[in-house]
Amino acid sequence: MTEVVAASLALRDASNDSIIILEPCNGPRFPNGVIADSQVVLPLKARRWWDPNCPVCEFDEQNVSDFLGQTNLPTLPLSPEACVGWGPGLTPGGDDVVMGMLTTFHALGMKNSALDLYQACDHRATTEYSFTLIRYAHKGQVARPVVRLMEALAGFGDLGTAIESLSNFGATSGLYLMEGVRRAINASHRRTD
Predict the structure, then answer these.
(1) Is 90 within the bounds of a domain?
(2) Does 80 fall in a domain?
(3) Is residue 23 part of a domain?
(4) Could you give the maximum distance between any two Cα atoms of the chain, in Å?
(5) What span, in angstroms and rounded, lies between the C-alpha atoms of 35 and 117?
(6) Which domain holds residue 89?
(7) pLDDT at 7 over 70
(8) Separation between Cα atoms, residue 95 and residue 160, nearest integer Å
């Protein structure tokens, strides 16, 4: 018989509907992630913190042009807000596109665009887990591979490395996230807040 061990994790300043992700040491650093050693020992102790916030910045035009030249990104059958919950998995493809758009709007300082998109999304259309990540993305808080892409688009870091890292993020999430980034960049050329 296997011994069952239970743990409770309490975070200050976290809302009651927060979802916490338990990550391995080499995990992607989600905004709501907690890193665990390979041997989880109770009680858990925080070893380090990271800032999940995407910086607000101005994108480098050459890096944007190089990024927009990516042609292997997936597409959605409808508008992103209509595709919340579309696709398989805990974070469906439609949700990932919305997260990529929200993050990019945040990075470009387009708060009104981010708010409009966020308010158009139906939280009941997807998983609670996925909508929690959408809510974090609306605040500019995303997994580390997405932050690296935003930094690279701003000229801080290697764009090719950031694209490759995000391409390998999840089963399909990275590619759909980048499609959201692409859509938001295109929208930013048409509209500014």
Answers:
(1) yes
(2) yes
(3) no
(4) 62
(5) 31
(6) 61-190
(7) no
(8) 24
